[in-house]
Amino acid sequence: MDLTNRPRRLRRTDCIRRLNRETRMSVDSLIYPIFVDETLSGVRPIESLPGQNHYGLDSVYQAVEDCLSAGVKHCILFGLPARKDACGSSAWEERGVIQEAVRAIKAEFPDFTVITDVCMCEYTDHGHCGILHGHEVDNDATLAYLAKIAVSHARAGADMVAPSDMMDGHVAVLRKALDENGFQDTAIMAYSAKYASAFYGPFRAAAGSAPSFGDRKGYQMDPHNRKEALRECALDAAEGADILMVKPALSYLDVIRECADAFDLPLCAYSVSGEYAMIKAAAAAGLVDERRIMCETALSVFRAGANMLITYYAQEIANAIRMGEIG
After folding, report:
1. Of these residues, 73, 84, 194, 280, which one is catalytic?
2. Is 280 a catalytic residue?
3. Which of 61, 166, 205, 299 could cross-link to 219 by cystine, CB 3.0-4.6 Å?
4. Which of 84, 148, 217, 247 is catalytic?
5. Do the beta carbons of residue 72 and residue 27 sit within 8 Å?
6. Is residue 76 a contact partner of residue 33, using CB atoms and an 8 Å limit?
């Protein structure tokens, strides 16, 4: 057949296919979530997230060692405190679980990037992400508490703070508080487009952060909305965010693409617990090839436009990149 254009020419060998890849992945773009439990000594498997662990303050270094062994150089920390109250006061304590975890990691691995989750849901006895006024989260009253948390994390040595609460105006308040306390170089990774998703269940079980009543639809985004994500990203960018984020990842690839196209800030995506748990469950049932599914889903996030990915599979993806299975 007389064909001038034959796309298969560039698919003929593995080397040629690699030469022509439009999307390239790097271990440098992977961020691993670490759960630190103040009441724990050692390591405990997380039932809702097979293959993941809770770490005590005496063992969190093991999680970092595992990351570095795989080539992963960045983590995001989530804390499980020993004590909870209505205003989540343990979240900003000088000797709080995250503050102590940051110090422990930085003392041993000073060049390892530590990002900290800034929210109140793990620390409040009601499980909501802010200060309650009746059964509603009071946006403006919450901001001062979030600022105290962020400053305490920066003081402990965090490289970056990541407010996940979805309060209006929180990035501006955190930027002002960090700057006024001498932490001008501490970056803010904003959970800009965080949807009120059904994919968070395993995380909430792992972090003990499920709300004791109601839901978070009053402050997290409606999954029906696409343009609203652009508005949220624009607000965070204007308020001083250094990195924007879309969460979850797989059901919001269209949002990732639009935000990547619309803004010149780095864009992070968070492949959340439910996405991870579904792959694990399907693989355990013998229905899918876990490693190939892991690679393909991660690739889809970068192809959509993300510059970095928070994922429970970070170490395995790093290994797959090194082995040439993806990247």
Report:
1. 194
2. no
3. 166
4. 247
5. yes
6. yes
